[in-house]
Amino acid sequence: MERFDNNTQLLREMRHEVTVKMRGASLKEVTGMIFQTMRKQIFREIEQPIIQMEAQEVYFEQVDVHTTTERFMFLFWPREKKEYTVTARIVVKVKYLELEEAK
């Protein structure tokens, strides 16, 4: 069993920068996927219990739109289909508990 001194402050705060690239059918869909992936990536990179994450800065460094035209039976009812690829850089304020295992 580990022991912690009652006067030891365990809560830490840091700024962490993450770059994420996602692709999807709409800009809203891509943005949602970017933030889901960002959270998972931060949990992997910071190996401590995370208490709070707050995005402080968000930059879309690159936004590519690829448009294709689809047709029913190659001739009828043309419709445009768009695919967005976004590279985002996000600066996040992370509050976590700094715990050290007993050696």
Topology of helices and strands:
Layout: E1 11-24, H1 27-45, E2 50-72, E3 76-97
Antiparallel strand pairs: 1-3, 2-3
Question: If you had to describe this structure to a student in words, what would you say it looks like?
Answer:
With 103 residues, the chain is α+β, with helices and mostly antiparallel strands. It has 1 helix and 3 strands. The chain has a 3-stranded antiparallel sheet with strand order 1-3-2. The longest helix is centred in the middle third of the chain and has 19 residues. It is rod-shaped, with a radius of gyration of 21 Å.
Structural class: alpha+beta
Strand percent estimate: over 45%
User: How many DSSP E strands?
Assistant: 3
Distance between the termini: 11 Å
The sequence of SSEs as H and E is EHEE
Q: Strand order of the main beta sheet, please? A: 1-3-2
The poorly predicted ranges are none
What percentage of residues falls in helices of 4 or more residues? 10-25%
User: Taking all residues together, what is the mean pLDDT?
Assistant: 88
**Biggest sheet character:** 3 strands, antiparallel
**Number of DSSP helical runs:** 1
Radius of gyration: 21 Å
Shape: rod-shaped
